[in-house]
Amino acid sequence: MSNLQNTLNVRSKSIPLNLDKEKIGLIVSLMALSILLSILSPHFLETYNLGNIGRQTSINLIIAIGMTYVIISGGIDLSVGSMLAVVSVVVASLMKNHGLDIFTSILVGVVIGSFLGLINGLIISNIKIPPFIATLGMMTIARGIAFVYTDAYPISGFSSKFTFLGQGSIFGIPVPIIITIIAVAIGIFVLNNTIIGNHIFGLGNNEESARLAGINIKKTQLFIYTFCGFMTAISAVIVTSRLDSGQPNIGVSYELDAIAAVVLGGTSLSGGKGSIFGTVLGALIIGVLNNGMNLLSVSPYFQLIVKGLVILLAVGLNTIRERKN
Amino acid sequence: MSNLQNTLNVRSKSIPLNLDKEKIGLIVSLMALSILLSILSPHFLETYNLGNIGRQTSINLIIAIGMTYVIISGGIDLSVGSMLAVVSVVVASLMKNHGLDIFTSILVGVVIGSFLGLINGLIISNIKIPPFIATLGMMTIARGIAFVYTDAYPISGFSSKFTFLGQGSIFGIPVPIIITIIAVAIGIFVLNNTIIGNHIFGLGNNEESARLAGINIKKTQLFIYTFCGFMTAISAVIVTSRLDSGQPNIGVSYELDAIAAVVLGGTSLSGGKGSIFGTVLGALIIGVLNNGMNLLSVSPYFQLIVKGLVILLAVGLNTIRERKN
Amino acid sequence: MKAISKTFPGVKALQDVDFDLLPGEVHALLGENGAGKSTLVKIISGVYQKDHGEFVYKGKSIHFSSPLEAREAGISTVYQELSLMEHMDIGRNIFLGREGQNRILGILDKKRIYKDSMQYLKKVKLNISPYTLVKNLSIAEKQLVEIAKAISFNAEVIIFDEPTSSLSEEEANNLFILIEELKKSGIGIIYISHKMSEIAKISDRITVFRDGKKIATKYTKEITIDEVLKMMVGREISLMEKKIIENTNGELLRVKNLSKKDSFQDISFYLNKGEILGFAGLVGAGRTEVMRAIYGADKLDSGEIMIDNKLVHIKNPHQAIAKGIVLVPEDRKGQGLFLNLGVDKNITISSLKDVSRFKVVNNKKNQDIAKKTVEKMNVKTPTIHQQISLLSGGNQQKCILGRCILLNPKVLIFDEPTRGIDVGAKSEIYKLMFELAEQGIGIIVVSSELPEIMAVSDRVVVMHEGKITGELKEDQINQENIINYMVGVTHYV
Amino acid sequence: NSTAGKKKDDGKITFGVTFQTLQHEFFVSMKKGLEETAKEHNVEILFSDANFQFDKQQSAMEDFSSQKVDAILTVPVNSEGIASSIKSAKSKGIPVVTLDIGSNEEVEDLYIASDNYLGGKLAAEYLTKTLGITSGNIFIMTAPEDLSIRERVDGFKEVLKDFPNIKIATDQHGGVSRDKALQITENVLQSNPKLDIIFSSNDEMTMGALKAVQAAKKEKDITIIGYDLSQDIAEEIKKGSAIKAVTAQDPYAIGKAAIEDALKLINKEKLPKKIGIDVKVVDAKNIDEVTN
Ligand SMILES: Nc1ncnc2c1ncn2[C@@H]1O[C@H](COP(=O)(O)OP(=O)(O)OP(=O)(O)O)[C@@H](O)[C@H]1O
Ligand SMILES: Nc1ncnc2c1ncn2[C@@H]1O[C@H](COP(=O)(O)OP(=O)(O)OP(=O)(O)O)[C@@H](O)[C@H]1O
Ligand SMILES: [Mg+2]
Ligand SMILES: [Mg+2]
């Protein structure tokens, strides 16, 4: 390889955005979709609607960041929706029924979300139950906890300071979008610039080689699932604030949306490779698609069909392209 | 004559009663659970209640038979619940709106179920989309189809001949139980006594070895997913008959129950080993647990927690035991 | 190391082996496949634990319970099998697991990682950006990355287990220069290779293994290659003589101009009935890929395959089997076995059709066939239902052979048929090959063991870097000729 | 004060209750009505949550039959599938009462519910008559797979027929839950900038719609009429938010009536086949008296 190539190589690859063919494909799809929608609906490109897309995507995207870590490591987390519900009702009840201040309530909620994730990690790394089953168990249990805790009543009506997190704007940018940008930045940074991030990739590539290389597998798994719980908790705070209500039945099937975003973004379900940037694109495609279909008043039942086809199409094209190389 | 031999053979050896330690563990759990429940509730052991357990378990178990094939082959099928809904509304509409006779309607329904499964198989074997994503797509699409087809209205009220399938009894044995027994027998026979059954195990053990051993991977995968669709369709007919109604929103999260039964029964999610007999035990444990919690009037929210814990406990004990060997 | 022993299920990999290494020395390990070289090395590097014996390191008796411990004690290893993370870049691979655990917040020092990696890559003369993903590298490049990784530990002992098996001559020479440098800085080196010329060039001492036992340790200068070879092979390869088949009854298989990009080009050869055709070549010469392509396991770019003088098109192994071609794959575990299944199912899975009616298997007949095969192949197993993963390698290999023979092949291709198999089993497998040849089956044997090739072949084709460099018959078949072709020298025949 | 039902050997009367869901405030209130009234009458209740799964409900009813409960009270997952379960329970001699949603074959012994169609009409009449809004663009948020919701929407649209100046801008599935409704309303507001009215057919969707309207700062421009009262909605009506009125059912009253009438039923008292529980429109004027 020539020197020039070397330098180019170094330059292009050191940026985490790593614009490989796959990502370019996704960006093109996203743009094509957007152009189509802006032709079909005059409202699509309005600033306010872009804010809508951002707000609506943020909840899925923040969860999907944690899910990206999980999937890169070769695992899966089905429990995010239920964990989200637990955090939602706990934060709501602390503020509303126990009179705690906003900050402490959120803090406790985030700690609880991370703790539930930690338990996932413990079950997976210590008892060695496969992630699918471990988090399936947690999915059921956490949902039960959310209902038992609230006796199925939503807990609503918070101070405007709290609802600002989900509904407010700073310099015209909706707060959920700002939080999402921070979460994405953290997600990218930790995955690409820290030791643990490096170990997550190693673990997902080959658990046995990772062990030979001296990586602490247990610690890494604990981190991954705790992080996923943490991100889910952040998302839960935003949902709770947006709805102005802590809801025990929120989050059902959120895991599927998150997984879809991650996989659309080019992260392989068999682990070892993937990127947060891809997940951002994946979540945006899903978000734009949902928004667009609402704008166009597509029947909700038909929306299901379109959504399924888009997932198959995107992943299918990707698979075919990969096989050709 | 060789037929006779075959039959004898089936009886003597290949019957799954291959009672390894794992199965014995499951049988003991099932019995312990039953004894506990019969002490706690005087109604548990009554014939009628046993019939209830059978009827209630049948729907999950029949799907779980197909799911066992899928999981042994190293795959997963998330779309069973949605496929069930499509078959349910198609059968209902053929009888009710198009005036077809029962037999033809059921036949068409079963063909459609198998066809949806075949599509899963085609996507997985030809486009090589991982089963999780392929069937996730199908899950969304088929649900959409069920809603679009019926415009979300349930279709109800069939002839008593049809409802006999789900509600009737022959010699005091509920018809769904009889159908389930036949399905289990077929499931065991095909898996243990046919070429394709052997190939399924081979595929699940090592796809590359299987290919080099001359196994037609594509054909095998097509069979597996079609078979899963077929079993789901049978289950759909029973549900439709039991409810006397074709319902577009039935079957949500059935895939999780089926997977739980299969995994509880000792079939490994990583493929290559497992048995229908284990799945029967797994489904029965779930069925007995649900029935028992109803009888004991455990709070519905708390039931979720118990169910999650039981899954974790059963799989966890298994994993720990396996690691010790 | 004193009196080291190690037993695996069915194999005595090492028996009472003594071994020592001095600082600044290159100590070569020699021996046939399965002699126990890698096992010894893996005990030293903490991957395996010894059964018996004593391990003294820097004057102290020591025991490593993990590779990590060995590495921290200053022993670094290039394993025979590559262990890189395919989807990660070179720099991250080199520093995986020791990115600098003490840094605050655990932030990666990327600058250091890539700068240092660049340095190590330079040392192995690999001029590639450390940001390149490993999956985009060729096998040789991957091997060089493994070597760069091994030297990056600043170890006192470095072990190379067949580091040049997939390197070109130039790349190998670079490695030798590097080894010379390491030696000068006082590092002790254990070097395993099957290539005599290398050993003669770089080693100070040689230890020869045979069947898990140490034969001798000698100074390289005081011994000739011929003497070493004698020690390695040792025993007379007293195999049953193959009966010469009078008339080989004409041609069975002919391939013309087979090519596959980046793997092999213009491969043409033929195979007669009852003939055993050896395929020799260095590891990576492309023999396996040729055979896989003929078998339909990989796609061909161009070329023709003829069976019984008829052109055939084979798209997958299923069709190959139907046409009478059967392959015994080289990677037993990865491509041959069904580890969770029993001996019986492993044997019969390809030929269930023969005992089936309407796709329903007559399980009794099937068991009988499995039982007969087990007897015929002399597989040592308690019952035919025994899970195959519990059998020794040789017995596993016999099961796969049994499976292939049940398919009644016309052409049987063995790829490394005796890899990791003990001596007794080896000669049984040779015996079987001869029997099959006598029945008129055409056999191709791909092997990296020269003695094996020489012992069984009627004719030998030699490959080098994806091309056929020569063909040897009858009395032309000798070590010198084969080695010459193997390294790419083309002679007049 | 009534010991009328005493007849079993153990002296305790047991009812089995199956809900289509207990993950919804409306039914939780109904459950409260059932529990508190049952306590008064010394009746034991076994609860089951079908979580919208038809066969789960069927299983629960079968299990109640096994336990020989004195009556089964059920909120059907929907009116179509329930008939076979009711027939099967009745064949074992157990009376069945349906709550909120009836069986389409009318096989139950007693049906206690509020009239959804009427409720929809009342909501529309409040909009057009009380508020006097007779023109504008309306977004109707529905969920057609749910029969009672469909009846509400049908009733509402029936009244709108007389007001051609009220144009249905869009008629969309609200996703049933608050978060989905919020998202959908945000998008609908986007594609219909001149929206004036929203009719939402259940309480959670009403709250979701409100949050979207608030976020879009259109609280002054849009009138929301909802169906079903919840604590959250009561707060909003009191506050004078965009939710001007909702048709309120009284789930607690349904629960209370269910226990009382079921006791009458097993004592073989004569009862009509259907008992209607009042629905009424609740707005800022009468909200305090309703919630107390
Ligand atoms: N993990 C294992 N389990 C069982 N048997 C093993 C294992 N590893 C090695 N063996 C066996 O031990 C013997 C010695 O193997 P080893 O890998 O040390 O040979 P080697 O001299 O390195 O051969 P090669 O030249 O092929 O690398 C062989 O018979 C092999 O099959
Ligand atoms: N897994 C792989 N990935 C990429 N390249 C490979 C791989 N395996 C082999 N190759 C390359 O393909 C070429 C031929 O390898 P092949 O395995 O066919 O050689 P061989 O002569 O059979 O050697 P061996 O003794 O290792 O079987 C070599 O250049 C090698 O580097
Ligand atoms: Mg070796
Ligand atoms: Mg090879």
UniProtKB/TrEMBL annotation, chains A, B:
The chain crosses the membrane at residues 24-45, 57-90, 102-124, 131-150, 170-191, 222-240, 252-269, 276-295, 301-320. It is a multi-pass membrane protein. Keywords: Cell membrane, Membrane, Transmembrane, Transmembrane helix. Pfam families: BPD_transp_2 (PF02653). The keyword Hydrolase does not apply. It is found in: Cell membrane. GO terms for cellular component: plasma membrane. It comes from the Bacteria. GO terms for molecular function: transmembrane transporter activity. InterPro entries: ABC_transp_permease. The keyword Membrane applies. This is Ribose ABC transporter permease. It comes from Neobacillus notoginsengisoli.
From TrEMBL, chain C:
The keyword Aminoacyl-tRNA synthetase does not apply. Signal peptide: none annotated. One of its GO terms (molecular function) is ATP binding. It comes from the Bacteria. GO terms for biological process: monosaccharide transmembrane transport. GO terms for cellular component: plasma membrane. Pfam families: ABC_tran. Keywords: ATP-binding, Cell membrane, Membrane, Nucleotide-binding, Repeat, Sugar transport, Translocase, Transport. It is found in: Cell inner membrane; Cell membrane. InterPro entries: AAA+_ATPase (IPR003593), ABC_carbohydrate_import_ATPase (IPR050107), ABC_transporter-like_ATP-bd (IPR003439), P-loop_NTPase (IPR027417). This is Sugar ABC transporter ATP-binding protein.
